[in-house]
Amino acid sequence: MGGLALAHGLSGKAEVVVVEQDVAAAETGGYRISLNDEACGALADLIPGALIEEIRLVSDTGSAFEQFTIADSQLRPIVVAAEPTGQDRILAQRQVLRVLLARDISASIRFGSTVRDVAQDDTGAAVTLSDGSVVDGDLVVAADGANSTVISSFLGTSPTRDLGLTGIAGWAPLGTDDPPTYLRRGPALAFGADGTGVFLSIYNPPSRAATDPTVAALTGGPALILGTISRSESLRGTRHTSAGDLVQQAGALLTRWSPWLTEHVSASDLERVAAFRFRAANPSGPIADWTPRSVTGLGDAIHAMPPTGGRGASTAICDAADLVDAITEHLDGAPLHSALARYQRSISPRARAAIRESLGPVRVINALRHRPAQALARPLLSVAGAWGQRRYRGTP
């Protein structure tokens, strides 16, 4: 998301080549994308006004994120936290957002291309792709996610670590049965006593049909967007396995959970199921602390965070806006290395705060790794769920 937003922001200022490993913008899975107030403002600075309005028309806004709920395994609310009023917010389908951001700059995107390594000197940088071809440039920006090939090639090591957690994301059509009422007002994160977590969010189709045929084909009807979070060791394996097997493994994690949820997990659209490992940078460690010459980065490539905080895309888009400012400063006469150094220093506070927030649920899951903790958590969660059920009426 950050790379596509950056390419828009540099339109008319520089020649841009986007190297994208997927064969098409829609070829992606994963969680729903939440853009917070700061990211919405940054995106408005990076892309044309007509495009951001098109994004809003096919996304949930307003009451779709009035609150965030923590629930138990029976989906009874434990904590319902209201979001600040007056905040701009966009909840977008990941596929739809990627398609729209890529559409008008498709001529600059090399789809189906994988980076093998990156080399730099005082005159620029060169990206070697897996097919042996080379892309030369004045600047290379790593925007290739939490296990960035670009950054690992450049630094010789990855700035992120595997958290030992795996997510399985799904998309299940909603029938006539009502979901928990709190989901109508915002997403939720539910926990089981064994540390398994599930992210939940309701998708409502746009009131007007999308004019873009690719987007229209992706919108569909009302759906439950869900993602299980579990310790990787509790799964048989998620690499090179089928979507049907991923759904079965997700269902096996939730055998004692709410029947409403398990029914929807089993009904997941197999074309929209994906699995991924959670990675994160150390919020107390160095972040983009190298002296830049011709390589920099943004988003998860340099300060990865798990999706449990819903901050990854927002932070990457804010990085992109700051990087456009730095490149503009260079085009106005400042040395590139000094403009990039100021950019890298400026993003660190925002990145650290977002990583720490995103690691909160991870600490809960890890705390429930051992059986004594699970034995204590089970009655506590049961009591908390029953108390929350009485306090927040209207939930099944």
Instruction: Give the strand order, joined by hyphens, for the main sheet.
Output: 4-3-12-13-14-11-15
Please report the total strand number as a whole number. 16
SSE-based structural type: alpha+beta
Percent of residues in beta strands? 15-25%
Broad shape: globular
Rounded Rg: 21 Å
For the largest beta-sheet, the strand count, sense and barrel status come to: 7 strands, mixed
- First-residue to last-residue Cα separation: 36 Å
State the helical fraction: 25-40%
Mean pLDDT over the residues: 88
What is the helix/strand order?
Answer: HEEHHEEEHEEEEEHEEEHEHHEEHHHH
- The number of helical runs is 12
Task: Report on the architecture of this protein.
This protein is an alpha+beta fold. It has twelve helices and 16 strands. It has helices at residues 2-9, 37-46, 49-57, 94-103, 149-155, 213-219, 243-253, 259-266, 300-303, 312-331, 336-367, 371-391; strands at 18-20, 33-35, 67-71, 77-82, 90-92, 109-111, 115-121, 124-129, 134-137, 140-142, 160-173, 188-191, 197-203, 223-231, 274-281, 295-297. The strands form five sheets. A seven-stranded mixed beta sheet has the order 4-3-12-13-14-11-15. A three-stranded antiparallel beta sheet has the order 7-8-9. Strands 1-6 form a two-stranded parallel ribbon. A hairpin with a 4-residue loop joins β8 (124-129) and β9. It is globular. The mean pLDDT is 88.
